[in-house]
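Standup notes
- DV: blocked on the single-chain target, sequence here:
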Amino acid sequence: MLDFSLSEEHEDFRKVLKEFSDRELLPNYLANSATTEFPFATLKKMGDLGVLGIGFPERFGGTGEDDPVLLGLATETLAYGDVNLASAPIQVGLVGAQLLHGSDEVQQAYLPRVIAGEINLAIALTEPGSGSDASALRTTATRVPGGWRLSGEKTAISWALSATAALVYAREPGSSRSKGVSCFLVDLASEGVSVRHMRGMGCLVLGWGSINLDSVFVPDSHLVGEEGRGFQVAMNKFDFSRAALGLMCLGAAQQSLEEAAVYATQRETFGKPLSEYQGVTFPLAEHATYVEGARWVCYRALWLRGEGKSHTSLASMGKWWGPLVAKEAIEASMKIFGNLGYSAEFPLQQRFRDVMAYLTADGTAEIQKTIISREIIARGTVSL
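- DV (later): unblocked, structure below
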């Protein structure tokens, strides 16, 4: 028998986060979105709620039990208030899952502080010549006594401006594709590291930027995972982040639709509220349907991950469809508000610009469709 209900624990946590989102995040969303200064005080409050430690060992301050659905629920609920800060559980989830493959020194130095919301860590994978084809990266890691020397450029890195350190992916000179790529934890205060801001049309507070490495020394203890296998570890983690990012965007869309519905009951034209016109209510109904459908694709992917079952294809479905559905729902909400929807004094236009980033971040729709179609073709080949 199918059961789509949340557990009592999940529902209680959702209520706590919804109250936090309404009280702490939504009123400050526009102000936070207008600056690159990261609100660490708010991040610390998120850490205190336990939202950054989902699935991590208790000895580091985590919840102990791996629960992908709970992480998705947290991300969606926080996005009602601030779609940018809602990405924090996903970022910490990606970073932390990889740090668990690192040395005791690295784990003890960084994991408790990341889970507590005291510091940010960035993931430096994308390069100017390797976006979706991340295995084509050119940053090199050359063996030297006691460690490595890293040289190269990383670009379009979220959290770059506010991060204390970054997980940097670099290859052994002479290697090709994914072979020979290792992951290193690099202190961004190290000699030879420079960070530059890249201003985008949204997500300003996430500190999007480039990281340049000029013969940066990284000690042996800061190798994360097995040498030459960093790329495979990173790709495995993206299956959960893609579904969670879809839910994050859909949370912002749901908040926008609800705001538009309230406005439609208050705004009158030709002597009647907007809510009495099908030209207003039908788009609300249509986009609410799309949002609900996309939500369950994402949640099913996360549920399958929690069950240890294959979910790569569904995660990719949630990643390409979720942000698209969200963008279109927010756009429809802006139209209902009329000229106010375009006004910088209201959050709709900001959500629209912030959600747009996830049409490409973590893999474009075309990349996700390639992943999905490969699985479809593979099934067809087996059945012949």
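- Follow-up: Residues 8-119 form a domain with the Butyryl-Coa Dehydrogenase, subunit A; domain 1 fold (CATH 1.10.540.10).
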